């Protein structure tokens, strides 16, 4: 099943170890692909990346849909295991590689991290459909003026909630340490500061701004987050 996909002629490669590298199918400018690339570099997981998605190899072919019936990136191939959904992949990789500093073994610790990851996946992503897909990329059907305005309002609201949390409990999402909760949240913050739609009146959220600078101290974030891409 895996070999039916044509690999990229020049995949990007990170690290060099004897184990077979992880295969990452997805364009490097994808928000969700970047989560996986970031966690790989944080942990030191070797990977190759192949360009699939918008502007690159299609994701609606029978071969790709056999790997991911939703036709979305990323698809991650780890030996004979094929995975989709970026947040679950990040959790899987942290657990598999024993990165307990990023993702503890205790269920309560994991739950506290996962609730922030899922908050990004639902509440924040819903807001970004209007604010980013509609307002910045002008993608239909999200580019309706009403939808853009509502997305911007909701994004301002959720970023305000994040600012309150970080000001009271930071500097990281989980307090005094970096965890995988910071991966989706960090990418959202990067997007927040890179939105250019004139209708977005970005409030001053000092704790979010400080968090952005804190994330920028991490080489993996500079490579896959604050790298000029929204």
Automatic annotation (TrEMBL):
Domain GST C-terminal: 106-230
Polar residues: bias regions: 1-17
Entry EC no(s): 2.5.1.18
Record keywords, A-Z: Transferase
Enzyme's top EC category: transferase
Residue ranges of the region described as Disordered: 1-21
PROSITE patterns assigned: GST_CTER, GST_NTER
GO MF, one example: glutathione transferase activity
Pfam annotation, one family: GST_N_2
Transmembrane intervals: none
Domain GST N-terminal as annotated: residue spans: 20-101
InterPro entries hit by this protein: Glutathione-S-Trfase_C-like, Glutathione-S-Trfase_C_sf, Glutathione_S-Trfase, Glutathione_S-Trfase_N, Thioredoxin-like_sf
Top-rank lineage group of the source organism: Bacteria
Cleaved signal peptide residues: none
Family indicated by similarity: Belongs to the GST superfamily.
Protein name: Glutathione S-transferase GstB
Species of origin: Afipia felis (Cat scratch disease bacillus)
Organismal lineage: Bacteria, Pseudomonadati, Pseudomonadota, Alphaproteobacteria, Hyphomicrobiales
